[in-house]
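Work Package 3 (structural annotation) set out to generate three-dimensional models for the target panel prioritized at the project kickoff. During this period the team completed the workflow that converts sequence records into discrete structure tokens, so that structures can be stored uniformly alongside our sequence database. As a representative example, we reproduce one entry of 143 residues exactly as it appears in the project archive.
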Amino acid sequence: MRVRPLIPLVLLLAACATRPVENETPDFKVQISKGDAVVDRGTPVPVSQVDYRIRVTNRTPEPVTLRRVDVDTTGTEILSHLATRNFDRLIVPGQTETVDCWVAALVFQASARKLPPVSIRMTMFLDTPAGLRVESFTRTVRS
């Protein structure tokens, strides 16, 4: 039973190694930043919208068309409903396209100074020459 004393150590090391997840595919580079929406702060405060700017770089040799983006939060400071936004944006090889997306949200924060970082889960639906392609990403967005 020498394993039991190691369990707290393993959990501690795992907690120390935790960092924001930024999963990538070699085919697309995705960056998400916060837009300029005005947000009332309180505990909790309904927010009409939180804006995000999404930059997608096509690293494939073929043009793709961004058709849809689903955006959701994974943290506890800002709670948003899954937002689906439709686009018709052609992204040629090697180029970056930017789309703006907003989500309705509740902010659970007592500080009136600034919003906390938010974990965003995003799913892109792309038309490619080979057919529909679905890519999912998780990013931490700082306000």
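The mean pLDDT is 75.
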